[in-house]
Amino acid sequence: MRACRRFGIWSTRWILLSVATIMSLSWLNAERGMALETMSAQKSRIEITIRNSTYLRTKTTPVRAGMPMVLVVRNEDPIPHGFSSPMFAGLPVTIEAGGIEVFGRGIDGLHVAPGQTAVIRLTNGQQGKMTFRCDLHPNLEGELYLLDVPVG
Question: What is the pTM of this model?
Fold first, then answer.
């Protein structure tokens, strides 16, 4: 009888330990899933500064194809510059600059006044090279590579 009681206590402990372990692993997996959802819900952000008639990438977060992205373009030069890209063609784009917001399809680019910042929001559906240029200064060009690298 004592052996049965001892066995019953041990089996109850193992069951409780197993249930606690399963619940902990489930909770950790749920937390991981929520973290991944939060990361994918955040918009990718690329910051480009125009300084000395050169495009400089100043800040970047990962960009995933098919996910919303934000391009921030700052003009630190004393002259206006353009920012146009064939990537904008056919995509719905929203541009905020100087207190004005413009949105639509077929927007080729924008001009950024000296000391001003423009924010461009779009969803790029494909990977690859994104070229951009200043339509006011033909020698001012730049490019970014949008790659979708799985993390696991």
Answer: 0.67
